[in-house]
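Lecture 7, part B: from sequences to assemblies.

Below are the input chains for today's worked example.
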Amino acid sequence: MLMDSAEYRESLRRYQPRVFLNGQRVASVADEPLLAPGVAAVGVTYDFAHKLQYAELMTATQKTSGKLVNRMLHISEDSNDLLNKLEAVRLVCAESGCAQRYLSHDALNALFQSTWQTDELHGTDYHQRFLNYLHDVQDQDLTLGVAMTDAKGDRSLRPGQQANADVYVHIKERRADGIVISGTKAIVTGAPYMHEFLVMPCRTHRTEDADYAVACAVPIDATGVTIVARPAGRPGESAAKFSAKYGQSTGVVIFEDVFVPHDRVFLAGECEEGGFLTTSYATHHRHSCIGARAGFGDLLIGAGAMVTEANGLDPDRHGHIRDAMVDLITITEGFYACGVAASVYCQEDPAGVVMPDAVFSNIGKLLLANKIYDMHRLAHYVSGGMIVALPGPDEDHNPETAASLAAVLGGRQDIPADKRLEVARFIEDLTASHQGGWYSVISLHGGGSPEAMKREIWRNYPTYEKRELVERLLDRGVFDEGKRTSRQPGRCCARGCQAPESMAKP
Amino acid sequence: MLMDSAEYRESLRRYQPRVFLNGQRVASVADEPLLAPGVAAVGVTYDFAHKLQYAELMTATQKTSGKLVNRMLHISEDSNDLLNKLEAVRLVCAESGCAQRYLSHDALNALFQSTWQTDELHGTDYHQRFLNYLHDVQDQDLTLGVAMTDAKGDRSLRPGQQANADVYVHIKERRADGIVISGTKAIVTGAPYMHEFLVMPCRTHRTEDADYAVACAVPIDATGVTIVARPAGRPGESAAKFSAKYGQSTGVVIFEDVFVPHDRVFLAGECEEGGFLTTSYATHHRHSCIGARAGFGDLLIGAGAMVTEANGLDPDRHGHIRDAMVDLITITEGFYACGVAASVYCQEDPAGVVMPDAVFSNIGKLLLANKIYDMHRLAHYVSGGMIVALPGPDEDHNPETAASLAAVLGGRQDIPADKRLEVARFIEDLTASHQGGWYSVISLHGGGSPEAMKREIWRNYPTYEKRELVERLLDRGVFDEGKRTSRQPGRCCARGCQAPESMAKP
Amino acid sequence: MLMDSAEYRESLRRYQPRVFLNGQRVASVADEPLLAPGVAAVGVTYDFAHKLQYAELMTATQKTSGKLVNRMLHISEDSNDLLNKLEAVRLVCAESGCAQRYLSHDALNALFQSTWQTDELHGTDYHQRFLNYLHDVQDQDLTLGVAMTDAKGDRSLRPGQQANADVYVHIKERRADGIVISGTKAIVTGAPYMHEFLVMPCRTHRTEDADYAVACAVPIDATGVTIVARPAGRPGESAAKFSAKYGQSTGVVIFEDVFVPHDRVFLAGECEEGGFLTTSYATHHRHSCIGARAGFGDLLIGAGAMVTEANGLDPDRHGHIRDAMVDLITITEGFYACGVAASVYCQEDPAGVVMPDAVFSNIGKLLLANKIYDMHRLAHYVSGGMIVALPGPDEDHNPETAASLAAVLGGRQDIPADKRLEVARFIEDLTASHQGGWYSVISLHGGGSPEAMKREIWRNYPTYEKRELVERLLDRGVFDEGKRTSRQPGRCCARGCQAPESMAKP
Amino acid sequence: MLMDSAEYRESLRRYQPRVFLNGQRVASVADEPLLAPGVAAVGVTYDFAHKLQYAELMTATQKTSGKLVNRMLHISEDSNDLLNKLEAVRLVCAESGCAQRYLSHDALNALFQSTWQTDELHGTDYHQRFLNYLHDVQDQDLTLGVAMTDAKGDRSLRPGQQANADVYVHIKERRADGIVISGTKAIVTGAPYMHEFLVMPCRTHRTEDADYAVACAVPIDATGVTIVARPAGRPGESAAKFSAKYGQSTGVVIFEDVFVPHDRVFLAGECEEGGFLTTSYATHHRHSCIGARAGFGDLLIGAGAMVTEANGLDPDRHGHIRDAMVDLITITEGFYACGVAASVYCQEDPAGVVMPDAVFSNIGKLLLANKIYDMHRLAHYVSGGMIVALPGPDEDHNPETAASLAAVLGGRQDIPADKRLEVARFIEDLTASHQGGWYSVISLHGGGSPEAMKREIWRNYPTYEKRELVERLLDRGVFDEGKRTSRQPGRCCARGCQAPESMAKP
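Predicted structure of the full complex, as C-alpha cells:
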C-alpha cells in the first residue's frame, strides 16, 4: 500500500505522542499549524510515488518480499538503485526544501546490513526480526525518524563517565521479553510527525559501555517518550510563502524507561557492530544528503535566474552575474557528481545491500557542508541588497503605501513589482531567515560534522595503492601486477563490472 | 553638547515622521517596541562618548569650530583620526552588532570634500552652506541617515530612461528659495530613528540626467517624506537575547515633492561632482564597514570560545576546533588590517579632509563582503549542530520538560545547561536567524556590491608603477629614478611622512 | 594490430619531420634524448593495451569495423565506453605523468560527429572519408597530434583582420585534388613524436572567415610542416628521476603551403560545423583531462604518504598532515567524480557517438584547472621545506659530503636518507621544477581556459528547468508535468529527473 | 661604513668557506657564476642604501651607537622603524625577487631581545657581548646568514632521542674560552655568500636537551663548517633573463666541532630563553616575509599588466582578465596590510626593541604562505597557455625558424613578438620554473610552516577580551571597565581598544 500525502497526514492521528512545542503540549500533530509545513514536506515523498513520470525514481520492488515499496523505504540492491535514490531525494527536496524521509531509507539499509553481520558473528537472530519489521514498515508505508545523535553531555568524556547517564540512550534493564531504554537523543529530524523512531548508537562504544550499543524501533507514542520540538518552517508568516508551506522540525527526544519488545530490538550490546551500524548509516545518509542539498541548489539556481531577470540584468551581458550563477551551478553539480560517482563505484555487502562508495559519499557531503554558505552568498550576490530592505508583505495591503511601493520597487518594466518582491522574498526565506540558518547548520552538521567525514575519507581511501604506484615508479621492490594482494577487500565497481581489478579507481 | 542614549531617545520625540511598519503607522518612534533595538544600538554611540576610557576614540575636536564632537560626526584630518574612527566603529559595533551611526561620519566627510571641490570648479557656495550645517549638526549631536541607494527600477536603463521617474530621487522643481525633490531611496539604514536624512546620488549621472545629481539634507519629518521600514532586530523574541536588545532597521524612503531650502542643498545638478561625492562617500564608508564587521567578528570569536568550552572541548587539544577559531580570527583581523593600512596610507584632500587609501579600503570591504559567510560557517562549526535543534526558551518554563532538558542538555559539568543554551542561542541569533541573514546581506551589498569594489581597486591601483619596475628589470627604456613624473597625484603617505616617494607602497 | 612501445618508437623512423629543438634540427626523433621521455610516456598507452588486467580499459571493439583497437583511438558508443576511457586515461597518466595520446581519442570522436553532421546539413561526403581514415589509423595503431590552438596574434581581432594571415591556419588554395593550408598552431602537445596531425579550428568562425574553418589530417613530415618544440620532461637531469623517464613536449607547428588531398580533408569552409567540431572536441577533451589530472593526483597522494612517513610523521596522530592529505584526496576525487557523472549522464549523438555530459565535463575541468595549484601547495605542505634546500644528486657521489649528508638528512630511522631524499626530489620534480610548472599551466589552459568552461557550463545548463520549478512553487502559471515542451533537445538524462526512463544505465 | 654591491662582492674574498655545489668544491664564492645571482640579489640591499630617494627606508640611526647603518642591520625602535623596514624589504625584493638580507635584521633584533631577557633572569652578560658584536657587524656592514632550521631527523622524536645527535646543532663541549658546537642546519638561505652565520635554536628545548639551546655567531669559514649549497637562481640560462641575474641559494650547513669564543656566544643552555629567541625571531621574520612576498607580488602584477597588453587584451573590456588582476592585487595588498597593521600595533620590549604585533604578523605570513599558489595561478591565467609552449630563446637565433616565429608569435601589432615572448618568459621564470617552485615552497615553509603560525595566532590572540565582551552582553558577572586585570601584559595597543592613549602613533 502506497499512501498519498493526505493518507499520511491522517495516519498520524493513530498516534498520541507527547509533543511539546514553544512550551505547550501539542494536542494533535496532524492538526497543529506549527507542524503543518513539516507534514507537508514529508507528504511530497508520498504524493510523488503516485506520479507516473517519477515511478522509476520514487518506487522500487523490495527483493525480500517482491512488493512495490516507496523508494524511501527500499533496500538498495545495485548501482541503479543508488542512482535512483539519489535522484529521488534531489527531486523531493527540490520540491519541499528538505523532505526528511530519506533518513528512513538510510537507517533501514544500515540496519539490514548490521543485523546480518551481527548474526554472522554472534549467532543472534536480529536479521530475521529486522526483515519482519522492514516488511511491516513497507506494507504500512510508514515514515521513521532516526534517533541517533545523543545529547552527549561533556564531549570530552565517554558515556559511562558522564555525571548524568541519560545524556546517552542506553539499556537500563534487560527483561525476558525485551529491554528498557532511557536517555536523550538531541537532534531528531521531523520528530513530531514520524510514525516510529529507529534508535541507533552514534559511535562505536567500548566494551564497558556496551549498554549504550543499542538499536531498536520505538513507536512515537510509546510510553515514556517525550518530544520537545521546534516549529517546522515558518508557518503563518506571510513573508515566507515557501517555508509557510514546507518546513522541517527538529526535536529533542527523551526516553524514560521505555520498554521495547524483542522483535523490535536490532542490537543490544554488541559494541563493534554498533560502530559498524553507525558508519554504515553515515555512509548511506551522506550519500542521501548530497541529493537533498542538490535539490536545495536547484531552488537557488532557479530563483537566482528569476531575480536576475526581474532586476533587469542579463547574465550574458553582465559577466559578474553569470560568473556567480556558474559558481552556484558548479558547487551544486560538483558535489552532486560525488553522489553519482558513489553510486557507480558502490560496494556490495555480503548481506545483499549495496553501499555507496564511502570516499565519494564523504567527499560529497564534506563539500556541501562547507559550500552551503557559498551558495547563500551567491544567491545574495545575484539578488542584490534589496532582499533585506524590502518591506514585509503586510505593507502590500497598506492603502497608504502599497501603490507607491508597487510603483517604485519594480525592476524590469514587464515584470510587476510584486513578482519581483515575491522572488526576492523567496531567496530571503531560503537563505536569510531562521529557516535559511537551519539549512546551513543542518548541511554542516547533519549526517556528521566535517571532521567525521575527513576521518572516513582517510580511513577508506586506498592510499596504499598510490604508494605502491610511486614506489614502483621509483624502482623500489617488485610490483606483482597479477597479484596485488594488498587490495582492500570488498572495493569493487558495481557497474557490471568492467574493470574490478583496475587501479585507476579510488 | 554630547547627548547620552536617553537624551537621544528623547530627542526623537521632537520629530513626527510618517513611518510605516508591518503595514501600520508608527505613532511614536521613541516608544515603538519594534524599533527599540535600533534606537538602543545607535544609543551606544552616544553613551560611549561619555566613557572616560573611550574619550580619545569616541570624541574629537572639530578643527573648523574648535568644538568637541562625537567621533561619528567628526571630519577626519589625519591618519590618527582614521585609526581612531576605525577603532571606534569596531568598539560600538562589537557592543551593539551594528551601531549604524558611522554612516553619518562617512557622508559628512564626503560632503565636506565634494562641496569644497564643487565650489572650486563652479564658483558655487556649497561649502560654506555645508559648514554651517555641519556645525549645527555637531552642536545638536544629531544622527543622520544616508539616503543614497535609489530604487533603480530596471537596472539596465539610465534614470532618465525609466518608465517611472521616481525610481530615482531627482530635482523636480528649482525655486528661488530652494529645490523640490521626488523619488525613492530603497535601502536606508536606521531610517525611522534618524534625525535627518542626507540625500546623495548613488552614481555619476550623465549631463542629460543632471537633475538626478542632487545632495541635500532633509529632516526626517519633512512634508512629503514617507518611511516604510522593517522592525529593528528581533524585539520581543525570547530566543534572541541580543537582537531583542540591539538591532537595525532598514527602510524604503519615499520623497514626494519635498521642498529643501537652499541652505540645505549641497549639490544640484553638477554631475561630475555628484560622482566624486558618491565615490568619496563609498571610500569613507567601506573603511568604516571594516571596523563594523570586525566588531561583529569580535562577538563571534567570543561566543565561539564560550560554546567550545561549554561543549567540553579544548582548542589546545582538539585541533579542528582550534583551526576553526584561528580561521575566524584570521578572517576578522585580516580584513581589519586593511582598514589599518588604509588609515596609515591615507590621502589628504585639498579641502583638508583625509581619505582612507582607496585600494586598502576597497580590499578590506571586498574581503569582509565575501567572508562574512565563512564567519557564519565557522561559528556554526565550533558550536555544533545543536544550535538549530535546541528547544526555544519558552520550554525553559514548561514544568513538564524544563527539568529533564536542563539535566540532559548540559555540556561540561561545571557549566549549567542554561548557560550553554544561552550562548548557543546567541550564536543562532547572530548567524542563523533573519537577523543573521541581515548581517550577511548587508555585509555583502552595504557600501556597494563586490563588483563596485573590484572596479575601484583596479581604477586606483598604481599598476603603472609595477609595469615600470618590470620594464626596467627587462632593460626596457630609461628609468629616471629622480623623476617618476607618472606618479599619480595625491597618493601620499600621511604618516608624517617618511617616504612619500617610495615605490614600495601601493 | 596493436603496437607496443618499442614498435611505436620504431614506427617513428618512418617519418622525417622537420623538428627544431633548442635551436637545432633534430636528426631522428626516435633517437633524440631530449624527446625520449615524451616517446616513453606515449609508449605507456601502447604497452598497457597488452596487459591482460587492463584489457577492458585499454582496448575496445570499434563498431564500424568490428576490430579491436586501442582505447585511445576508439569511438565511444555508450556510457561504459566513457567510464572505461576515463579510467584508462587516469591509469596511463598515473604511470607517465601525462600520456598525451588521449587527445587522439578526443579529436577522432569529435570529427566522427562533425563530419556526420556536416554531411547531413550540406550533403557533403566528409563522414565516409573520415571513416576510411579512422579505420586506417586504428589498423596502424597511430598516435595523432591535435593542432588546434592557433597563434592568434592580436586577440582582440578576428582572423581576417590580422596583419599576418598566418597567425591562424587557413585554406590558402582550393585545388581539384585537395587544399593547400598555411598558418601556425601554437600549442601542440607531443608534436615531434606524433605520426600525424589532426588540424582543427579553435573557434567558430564567421562567414567572412570561412577559409579558417578547416579540418584535415596531415602527416608529421608533410612538405611545408615545421615543428619548433621544447624538450620533453627533464631528460638527463639526475635530480629528476621521474621526468627524466617520462615527459611531454609541446611545440609550435608552422604550416607553409601544405597540400592536403581530399580524402584527408574533413571540413573546408563550413563555419557552423567548425564551431560544432571545436565544442565537441572540447567536451570530449575536458572529460579526458579529468582522468589525466586524477592520475597526476594519484602520484602526489602516493608521494605525499611516503614523504610523511619518511619525515617520521603519522597522519593519524598529526591532524594537520592528515587534513592536507584529505584535501589532496578531496580535490582529486572531487573533480574525478565529475568525470564519472559526465560518463553516466552522457548524450548520444545522432551519429552514434556518445558525448560526455557537457556540464559535468566542464565543471570537472574547471575544478582541476584552478585546483592544480592547491595540489602543488598540499604536496609542498606535507613534504616540508627541505624539498627546495636538499642538495642535488651530484652531491650523492661527492666523497667529501656524501657520508655526512646521508647521516644527517635521514628522517625516520628505518628509512635510509637516500630513500627520503628520493621521494622529496620526486615531489620537487612534479611540483617545483619547470616540469611542475608545465603541469600547472597545461591544467589551467589545456582544453581551453577557465573562461571558456564557464561559458559552456552556462550555455548547457538547464536553468530553465530550475526556473520552472520555482515558478511552480510560487504558484505561477500552469505546470504541465506531462508535456514540458521547453525541454532542451538532446539531453537524454537530466539532473532534474524528468526522464528517468532514459537514464544512462551505468 | 655602508658598502655598495661591488664592495660587498669584494668583501667575500676575505673568507675561505668550504662550499660544495653540484658535487664540486667552490674555489671562490665571489667568482662562482652559479652563485652570482645570489650575490647580486643581496647586493641590491647595499646599493639601494646609497640612493638618495630611499635613504629613509634603507638606512637608520642605531640608537645604541648613534651611527647610520643599513636598515637590514638596524634594531627597530618604534612603529615607524617597522613600517620603514617593511617597505624597504618590499622595495629590495621587488627589485631582486628576494634580497635575503632581511634575515640579518630579524635575527639581530631577536638576539637583542633575548640576550637582554636572559641576562635579566639569569644574571648573565650576553647582552653586552651581543651589543659589541652588533656594533661591529653594523660598522663592517656585514650580511649574516640565519642557521636555525635543524635537520631534525625523525620529527616524532626529541633532539636527545635521535639516533644521530648531529641532526640538531648542539653544544658538544664547554671550554673556558668558549664552546664547541656540532650538528646540521638544513635550510640556510644564501648560505655560501654570507659573511657569518647566526646559529639559533629552532624550538623550545626541554631541560634534558639544554645543550641544544645554543645561539652564537660563526664566521662562514670557521674551521669545521661545511656548506652544501644549490645554485642561486638560473645562472646562464638564456630563457631566464631575471633569474640569471638575481637568485637565491639555499644550503645545508654542517658544523663539525666548531669552536666559538665566548664573545660570540649569545645563549648556551638557557632553554626557556631559547624558546623566546625562536619565537621572537619568527615574529620579526614573518613580518619581513610579508614585505618580501609583496615585492614578488609587484613583479607579477607588473608582468601581468604587460602580458595582457601584449596579448591584445584590455582589462577594462575583458572582465575576466580584470578580475584576475584584481585578485592578484587583493592577495598582495591584503597580506601586506597585515604587515602594516603589525607595525602600527607593535609592542615595545623592555629591552627597547619593538616587536611587530604577533597576531597580525602571523596572519600576514599565513595568508601569503597559502596564497602564493594563487598568485602563480593568476599570473598563468592572465598570461595564457603560451608560456609553456613558446620555444626557448635558442630558437631566437636559429636562422631557419627565427623569422617565421617572430612573424606568427606576435600579439598586438605594435608590440614586437620578442617583447611579448620576453614578458611571457619572465612570468614562466618566476612561476613555472624551478625558481618559481622555490618561491612557492619558501613562501609556504620559510619562517615556519602554516601550522606554526596558527599556533602563534591562537596563543597571542586576546580571546579572553572577546569572551568578556560576550559575557557582559549576556549579563553575566560584573564588568569592571576601569580595571580589566586580566589584560595580557605587554600588548600596548589592543584591537579591543581599551587603551587608546597608548596607541602606537603611526
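Note for the exam: The longest helix of chain D spans residues 271-310. Keep this in mind when comparing with the next example.
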